[in-house]
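Pipeline run #58 for the internal structure catalog. This entry was flagged by the ingest filter as a single-chain record with no existing model, so it goes straight to prediction. Upstream metadata was stripped on purpose; only the residue string is passed forward. Reviewer on rotation: M.T. Logging verbosity set to normal.
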Amino acid sequence: MTDTMDQQSNSVLPGLAWVDRGLGWIKRRERAVVIVGVGFQVVVLLAMIATPLQTLVAGDTILLRVVPVDPRDLFRGDYVILNYEFSRVPPQGIPGLQSTDGRGQTVYVTLVPEEDGKHWRADRFSLRPPTSGRFLRGQMTRSHRIEYGIESYFVQEGEGLSYERAVRSQKLSAEVALDRTGKAVLKRLVIN
C-alpha cells in the first residue's frame, strides 16, 4: 500500500496514472518515437510532392488560353492569377446542377482542340466524368465560378507585367499537364 501511495505522490498528473504510464513508455522509447515521427513527416511530404509530379511526368500536355487578373502581391512577390474561358459556368448552366450556388460540386469540362491545332477550349460541362477524350475536373467555389487548381502562377520578380501585357494582346497561354482523371497541373506560361 505504501508503494501505491508513493507512486501516486510521484505522479506528475494525479488521478491520471494512464497518462503517466504513456509518458513513461514514450520516454523509454524516445529515439524510436522521434524516428517514427520524422519518418511519418517525410512520407507525408513525399506524398504531397509525388501526386502533382505524377501528373507532370505522366500526364498529357495541352495549351489553354488565359486571362490574368493581378500581377503583384506585396507579400508573395510577382505572380499571375489566371482565368480561363471555362472558369465560369456557361449561361445555359450545367445539366443536372440543382442548386444555383453549387458550391463544392465537382464539375467536368470536356476539351476539344481549337482550329490552330495547339490550344484547347471547353466544349461541354457536366457533373460526371466523360467516358473518352480530354477533360478537366474542377470545383465550384462560389456562384458561377469553377476552379481547377491552375489559377495562379509565380514568376520571377519583375516579370509579372510582361505576362500582363501578353494577355492584353491575347498572346498568353498556359501549358498544363493533364492526367486521365481530369486533374491539371500548371507547368508554365507561354507567351506566343
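catalog note: Confidence is low (pLDDT under 50) at residues 1-9.
catalog note: The longest strand covers residues 106-113.
status: ready for reviewer M.T.
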